[in-house]
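thread: overnight batch results

M.L. [08:02]
morning all. the overnight job finished for the chain we discussed friday. pasting input first so we're all looking at the same thing
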Amino acid sequence: MDLEVATPRWAGHPCIVAATGPSLTEEVAAICAQAQPFWKIIAVNDAWRRIPTADVLYACDAKWWNAHKGAAGFAGEKWSSHEIKGNDKRQAAEQYGLKVIAGEDASIFSTDPALIRYGRNSGFQAVNLAILFAAKPIVMVGFDMRLVK
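M.L. [08:03]
and the structure it wrote out:
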């Protein structure tokens, strides 16, 4: 498995990073989708179900990719991160065609195009990927930062 380098492919484009919080309603998802193709979209985990036209689907956990059978219905690029110790994605990457970038445990965004930082959740990592793609501005939706009961 070759690790990816995140090139500044979205320079000059704004980006929406959509997480799975309850504020990602059908109405918000429709507004996001209408902003394409100029606005780029990264869907985090199951957010792709609300925005199936997203450019990128990002999920960190191999368990997620396996449980969702690689998100077979998603047509965009599928990205994840990899670290030999504790976050090995070699099998999932091969099985589901994932683009994989090196990752490390830290809570500050990386500016190294060959590395994202974990920040303890996939949403943080997806924002880091948008930064490395040189998207500006980056708008976050569905990041509710709370447990919903």
